């Protein structure tokens, strides 16, 4: 005989997500020197690395993340 069917998970009630809370500025930087370019790339790499670590920690928390774990993450080691 076939295996018993698994019960489907329940679907949570729909909700409206809040809009973005940050500010995005879209513009092109012009007339940059080589040093400016290097600094901007280094800053971008650093911020990207921090964002990646934040995402890694949030994913590790799974559904258990809350304001306390977020505050501990922001406070650093």
Describe the structure in your own words.
This protein has 77 residues and is mostly helical. It has 2 helices and no strands. The chain has helices spanning 34-61, 67-75. The radius of gyration is 21 Å and the shape is elongated. The N and C termini lie far apart (55 Å). The mean pLDDT is 83.
Order of helices and strands: HH
**What's the average pLDDT?**
83
Shape: elongated
Number of strands: 0
Strand content: under 5%
User: Number of DSSP helices?
Assistant: 2
Helix content: 40-55%
Instruction: Report the biggest beta sheet as strand number plus sense, adding barrel if it closes.
Output: none
Question: Please, what is the oligomeric state?
Answer: single chain
Structural class: mainly alpha
Low-confidence stretches: none
End-to-end Cα distance: 55 Å
Gyration radius (Cα, Å) is: 21 Å
Summarize the model shown.
By secondary structure, the protein is an all-alpha fold. It is built from 2 helices and no strands.
Annotate the secondary structure layout:
Layout: H1 34-61, H2 67-75
List the keywords.
single chain; 77 residues; mainly alpha; elongated
């Amino acid at each position: 005989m076939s295996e018993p069917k698994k019960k489907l998970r329940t679907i949570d009630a729909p909700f409206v997500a809040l809009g973005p809370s940050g500010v995005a500025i879209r513009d092109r930087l012009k007339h940059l020197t080589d040093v400016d370019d290097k600094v901007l790339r280094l800053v971008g790499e650093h911020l990207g690395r921090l964002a990646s670590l934040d995402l890694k920690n949030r994913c590790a928390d799974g559904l258990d993340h809350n304001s306390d774990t977020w505050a501990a993450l922001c406070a650093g080691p």
